Amino acid sequence: MTAQTGERRRDAERTRTEIVDVATEEFAERGYSGARVDEIAARTRTTKRMIYYYFGGKEQLYLAVLERAYAEIRAAERTVDVDHLDPVAAVRRLAEVTFDHHEAHPAFIKLVGVENAQHAKHMNHVARLVDLNSSAVDLLRGVLDRGRAEGTFRDDVDALDVHMMISSFCFFRVANRHTWGALFDRDLLDESRRGHYRTMLGDLVTGYLRK
Amino acid sequence: MTAQTGERRRDAERTRTEIVDVATEEFAERGYSGARVDEIAARTRTTKRMIYYYFGGKEQLYLAVLERAYAEIRAAERTVDVDHLDPVAAVRRLAEVTFDHHEAHPAFIKLVGVENAQHAKHMNHVARLVDLNSSAVDLLRGVLDRGRAEGTFRDDVDALDVHMMISSFCFFRVANRHTWGALFDRDLLDESRRGHYRTMLGDLVTGYLRK
DNA sequence: CTTCTAATGTACGAACTGGTACGTTAGTTA
DNA sequence: TAACTAACGTACCAGTTCGTACATTAGAAG
User: Which pairs with CB-CB distance under 8 Å and at least 24 residues apart come from A186-195?
Assistant: First the structure.
């Protein structure tokens, strides 16, 4: 309750946050079973004991990591404003935001991969996540409705399918960067090709939607 | 050299194959560090000792798994014949073959994820893989050339980019099945939606390519 | 200043896990 | 049938890794 931040040697909140920060990197990089509790502790200014003190165990720590990662990305998505754009431009804008998100949060992408590798069994235990998650799709649905009413878009498309189309392109580019680089000698995240792929995604989606 | 197959108690080739079969499932399901050598051995008709006898260690076994998985999928790709189809139909056919492949080989998809999680560091040690891998893209490039010559396709598209477009859609659907199911309550592999997604992919790609 | 507790650190144990030393057997060859 | 080798099995070790018992301290409360 005091204001002497920065010099306190005991700060529960700070310790918790730091543990989750480091754990996010560790789990993203090595997977659930590959991640080492000792390693996470070592890269923190505190000790392994604190992980068990605050979180209870490796699994609960992973849960905390997952929950925070999703909460962050959904919060960012909610800030997008597309109402002042025409439907085509709005869809393109949404695709670009998703594109940028994926590029800016590689650790998140990796966590999604880790969670899928475990059949999403942890995610089901975090009820809060499901509530958070419709925001991006809801935005998209609104835009699609406008486009249909206007007569610009075909009217047999589902918002979730379009979201999947966009996500898959963005996800793949980040997630499979390494095998793609090894097999085809092309770095999908090379800065010089960034604009090209961003435009390509927009063309792809709007092209599909148009009547 | 004898012909008494089926009753031999000692069959090196059979033992090797069986180990790789089981290891493929184990590595795909649990990841590299999550996979247990003891578990692989237990699910085989032989013992852990044989894994070390034939492969040398966990890492070399993983390499053998990876190499065989890629060899299989590339071999299947090579069998596609698109020369008798017009460019648009041929592209659609290639997309569908990729789509079907991904659906039929979930273990392969998971291995790709596992390998990317490790920055594809093992793949670089399997030189044979890189040679194998251009087949799908070469086929596609030929079709794109025909389409351009014919005037049907835009002429600013790269075959590798189109291949990426197709792969990303197919990959995502299989790889992220579980988180998608948990977050949006939609099973991307549900049989009743299979045809829908297959058509959607074809529309998407051919729509993008057309002038 | 004393007391009390949340927060923190140290040291260690039990189970797991990759790997190996050593012995055995099937099947081939002379 | 005797000798030889590839193929196989058992038992075990050494290092790792999650988790915990126990001791300690910072800082708030009275």
Answer: A186/B160, A188/B164, A189/A103, A194/A103
Distance CA B84, CA B14 (A): 40
Q: How far apart are the first and last CA of chain A?
A: 60
The average confidence (pLDDT) of chain B is 89
Residue B44 within any structural domain of the chain? no
> Are B143 and B91 in contact, with CB atoms under 8 Å apart?
yes
* Residues of A in Cβ contact (< 8 Å) with B134: 184
Question: Is B194 a member of any domain?
Answer: yes
Domain span holding position A122? 69-209
Distance separating alpha carbons of residues A102 and A95, to the nearest angstrom: 11
- Would you tell me the crossing angle of helices A194-209 and A159-175 to the nearest 10 degrees? 160
Instruction: For residue A194, tell me if it sits in a domain.
Output: yes
Q: What is the pLDDT of residues B64-121, one digit of tens each?
A: 999 999 888 777 777 888 899 999 999 999 999 999 999 999 999 999 999 999 999 9
CA(A202)–C1'(D1) in Å? 80
Conformational region of residue B11, where left means phi above 0, alpha means psi within -120 to 50, and beta covers everything else: beta
Phi, psi of A153 (to 5 degrees): -100, 150
CATH of residue B130: 1.10.357.10
Of B118, B124, B165, the CB nearest to A204: B165
A35 touches strand D (CB under 7 A): yes
CB atoms within 10 A of CB B87: 22
N residues, chain A: 211
Number of domains in chain B: 1
Tell me if B12 is assigned to some domain: no
Q: Give the mean pLDDT per block of 10 residues along chain A (211 residues).
A: 40 87 96 94 92 94 92 80 93 94 94 95 78 80 95 94 97 96 94 97 95 80
Distance, in Å, from the CA atom of B174 to the CA atom of A154, rounded to the nearest integer, reads 27
- Count of CB atoms within 10 A of residue A70's CB? 23
The answer to whether A8 CB is within 7 Å of strand D is: yes
